[in-house]
Amino acid sequence: MWRSAPAGSATALRLFWRWAVLITEDTGAERYLPAENGFRFIRSAADAETAVREVLHDWSRLSKQAGQCAVEVFDSVRNLRRILDF
C-alpha cells in the first residue's frame, strides 16, 4: 500500500526516484546537477541507443544516483531553507 509522505519531503522524493533514471534531451541542464546524477542526456539517436544500453546494464547504480540527486536538488524544504538562510 502506498503511504503518502509530506509534500517536498526527502522521503517522498526518494520513493519517487527509487525507480527513476532519466534519459532526456541535452538542453544544458547537466551543468546544474551533480556529476553523478542518474540522468543520461542525449543529442542524437545514437546517443539514445547508448543511454538505453547503459541504463539497462547499470540500473541499480544509476537509479541510486537519481534518487540522491532528487533529494539534493529538488527537495523544496531543503532548498527553501537554503534560500531563506534558515
In words, what does this structure look like?
This protein is mainly α. The chain has one domain (10-84). 53% of the residues lie in helices and 9% in strands. It has helices at residues 10-17, 45-57, 59-74, 76-84, and strands at residues 22-25, 39-42. It has a two-stranded parallel ribbon. Helix 1 (10-17) runs antiparallel to helix 3 (59-74). The protein is elongated and about 45 Å long. Mean pLDDT is 78; it is low at 1-6.
Give keywords.
mainly alpha; 2 strands; 86 residues; 4 helices; two-stranded parallel sheet; disordered N terminus
Summary?
The chain is mostly helical and 86 residues long.
Q: What's the arrangement of strands in the largest beta sheet?
A: 1-2
Helix and strand string, N-terminal first? HEEHHH
Structural class: mainly alpha
Helical region count? 4
Q: Report mean pLDDT, rounded to a whole number.
A: 78
- Please give the number of β-strands: 2
How would you sum up the global shape?
elongated
* Number of self-contained structural domains: 1
Tell me the radius of gyration.
14 Å
Distance between the termini: 35 Å
Which regions contain 5 or more consecutive residues with pLDDT less than 50? 1-6
What is the strand content? Answer: 5-15%
Helix fraction? 40-55%
Reported for the largest beta sheet, the result is:
2 strands, parallel
